[in-house]
Predict the structure.
Amino acid sequence: MKYRTIIVFCLLVVVGALLLPLEGVRAARLAPNATLFAPDETDSIDLDSLTMWDYDIDSSKVVRKKGSVLVIGNGRNIRGCNPFGLNVQRLRDYAGVVNDYQRTFPDVQVYFLGIPTAVEFYLPEESQVKAASQRKAIDILFQALDRKVVRADSYNALQQHVDEPIYSRTDHHWQPLGAYYAAEQLAKAADVPFRDLGAYKRKVVRNFVGTMAKFSGDAAFKRAPEDFVYYEPNQGTYRTIYVAYTLDKARKNVISESEPYQDGFFRAYPNGSAAAYSTFMGGDARLVRVETDVDNGRRVLILKDSFGNALSSFLFYSFEQVHVVDCRYFTQNLIDYVMDNDITDIVFANNIAHTSAETVAMYRKYLTQNKKNEETEYDPE
């Protein structure tokens, strides 16, 4: 018995000695500030072979609310989504301003493009966290629109492609592929040409982690980067003219603007850049006019939030001019702008969560501010 006890004790000592270094490796791997790879090294690393540890996540819950974000899943497939609540009056007010534009511009065709956000498609049914139906919200808005307004619904097209990367996991925007499917529906509604992805050059920003890391405060997003994939037209020619706005510190008001200048539509960002979605036009604080080699007499004005940035580039084969106005930043009078630029089509391209009172107020303001042409009056009645 004595010798057996000694043998058991020796075995325990040996096993403990072996486990200590392994425990040290495990502790090092689980260190909160551990870096698994450098931002620009993903070209040579197979992300599927990496193990991601979610040591600050309660993995027993399907969905967690962190900050202003619903965090879905964990590990490499973690996804952040913004909550959505249905407000019927807000939707009707937004439809009201769209109708006002159709009445204000009787010779211009007005469209509403219903754009859902990611939470509509990726919130698990078994989750105790719920979001209102965006299908219902879009239908309410459709029903409130004047019969002359064309409804261009991207919902069903996006729903058919939810297994593809049509929305970012780590950012609140859609991916350009989602914008492509939406642009296709808009082109059909407008009866203009549309080119498939074969007419574009595919470009990738690797190791992209967007706004969800900041909005949620959840470090797990930084350990689950994704590819940001965008598409540049590789046929035809186009040129882009900008008026750049300087904003106040709160980024709410335009305090000055540049003279018109020409520059590229696409910006190149390095792997690991959190600003990859600014690939399109460099962001929102600009008035943009794109002149293409399409010769069909169609000139489209896109009224948008940042979801419209990725949408615009897929219309360069469809319209001879593409004008882009943000719902937060525009200094001219829109009636004058439409007349001066011979606009034939106006598209409201806000995601359904951005049909807010602030957006409605700005679109109404655009019709009355800084008016120079007194012959055309705005009468919402």
Q: What stands out?
A: Residues 79-368 form one domain. Confidence is low (pLDDT under 50) at residues 5-60.
